[in-house]
Fold NifT protein.
Amino acid sequence: MKVMIRKTEKGLSAYAPKKDLEEPIVAVEKEELWGGWIKLKNGWVLGLPEMPADTKLPVTVEAKKLES
């Protein structure tokens, strides 16, 4: 699923346009974010693709839903 990752004043958030859902990111597997999983406040766990650690935000990526 396409997900836009962006920084907000409260931290990182993820927006899934097809679901019209924006949720804060509450946990990350890797500090640099890319190539690991992220957990959203609603309980979803998404796998992110490998990308350079210095990737500028906001960015839209193809994420894989691992849990819900």
Remarks:
- Residues 2-67 form a domain with the OB fold (Dihydrolipoamide Acetyltransferase, E2P) fold (CATH 2.40.50.240).
- The chain has one domain: 2-67.
- Strands lie at 2-8, 11-16, 21-28, 37-40, 45-47, 59-62, 64-67.
- Residues 45 and 67 are 5 Å apart (CA to CA).
